[in-house]
Design goal:
The chain starts with a strand and ends in a 6-residue tail after the last strand. A three-stranded antiparallel beta sheet has the order 1-2-3, covered by helices on one side. It is an alpha+beta fold and about 70 residues long. The relative contact order is 0.28. It has one helix and three strands. This is Mtc1 family protein.
Length: about 70
Amino acid sequence: MATWLWRFEKADGTEVQPAVQPEEFTTQGDAESWIGEVWKDLLAGGADQVRLFEDSTEIYGPMSLHAEES
C-alpha cells in the first residue's frame, strides 16, 4: 500500500520541520484534507510551501501555503 507524505519547505526549497506533525496518509484525499485543515498552522510555524509524495515519487509541488492575493 502506498504512503502519501508531505514535505515542508521554506520558499527557497529548504526542508523544515512542520509545526503540526502529520500522520502517514493512505490516500491522496486524506493527505489533501489534512493540509486543508492545518495549512495556517504550518505557515505560522515557518513552512512556506509543501510537496506531496506517494512513497518516494513526487506527485506535485511546490504548493505555496501563502493565501492568494485577492
